[in-house]
Amino acid sequence: MDAERRVVIAGAGMAGVQTAVALRDQGFTGEVLMIGAEPHQPYDRPPLSKAILLGTAEGSAFEVDFAALGIELRLGLEVTAVRPEAHELDTAEGPVPYDTLVLATGARPLALPGAEDVPGVHLLRTLDDAARLRPVLEKRHDVVVVGAGWIGAEFATAARGAGCVVTVVEAADRPLGGAFPAEVGTPMAEWYAESGTTLLTRARVAHVEPGEVALDDGRLLPADAVVVGIGARPATDWLAGSGIALGPDGSVTADDRLRTSAPDVYAVGDCASYPSARYGKRLMVHHWDNALQGPRTVAAAITGALTGAEEPPPYDPVPYFWSEQFGRFVQYIGHHEAADTMVWRGDPAEPAWSVAWLRDGALVALLAVGRPRDLAQGRKLVESAAPLDAALVADASRPLKTALAG
């Protein structure tokens, strides 16, 4: 009987909360315990680099009545190990037994080597991080941002909006160098200049001192604060020795129903990777939408295993991500690495444009800047894998959905 089963969820972010809610939505009546390392009520992360950072919102707690749903919370408690053979988690307060375990510990931002203990150096991942950075913006400090990726661009946008002097240091030759090809990322460099942000590309940090960032070419940058945005890694170090399989990137290698290599253990959200039949490779997706969708599959797999119901469909969504930066709304769907054709829709010098990636004539990914309709229609086209006429795709004056071949 599922009423006698206990599901323990390690992690109280979006993926953990949505897993707990989905279990109740799908009829699970047993015990649900969610353990979170932070002392705060579970909260949503996207506002951290926007409203909370700017002081226009005090928090972003999920509007979930955990007590009414019979979901127990243990907050401010880190999990330190798991022993699958004993069906137990280890914590500072002692072992926690489980019948089913869900790993939802998310990802941790990468620190700048050698700068971890330097005063004035910040990461932006948690509510406490945002609280520490808010006075920096209020006082309009000189800020150096290390990394011109998604989080670097969003923080630079907020800091410029608050009146700070902002310099962004990027090791690659363009923003988002690890995300998009040069012809796509290069036009984005102009966004920094338009906002009054100084972007230094092909630049590396040699060392950081209080009040100063030294680059490896000898340049010295004044810095009342340094914000590091150089990527993140799955928060899975605590799984060492557990026998749960991890990939080279540190992710828990879940299967297409998000089950791990250990019995009765699932993984979801930023800490997990999964095999995508759509793209023919294993994907690790560190985005909000993945943490929203994956829990439904996990809950269905857990309840199905208890009731003998049919397994849920394989987890293989079209990845989706969005970002607000320098006055632009940027959205991305899919995975473009396997594409054989890239098609521009519009001029990147204009406020709104898109880039479509095709494989064998079918849409596999789309980047939309200020073109939400392209994004909405593109998602359906990626899901359908319908062949498109590349010449019609390139005609930005017509709806993307009218580019069907034949």
TrEMBL record:
The lineage of its organism: Bacteria, Bacillati, Actinomycetota, Actinomycetes, Kitasatosporales. Residues 320-403 form the Reductase C-terminal domain. The keyword Cytoplasm does not apply. Pfam families: Pyr_redox_2, Reductase_C. Its cofactor is FAD. Keywords: FAD, Flavoprotein, Oxidoreductase. Gene3D superfamilies: 3.30.390.30, FAD/NAD(P)-binding domain (3.50.50.60). Residues 6-282 form the FAD/NAD(P)-binding domain. This is FAD-dependent oxidoreductase. The keyword Flavoprotein applies. Coiled coil: none annotated. It comes from the Bacteria. InterPro entries: FAD-oxidoreductase/Apoptosis, FAD/NAD-bd_sf, FAD/NAD-binding_dom, FAD/NAD-linked_Rdtase_dimer_sf, Reductase_C.
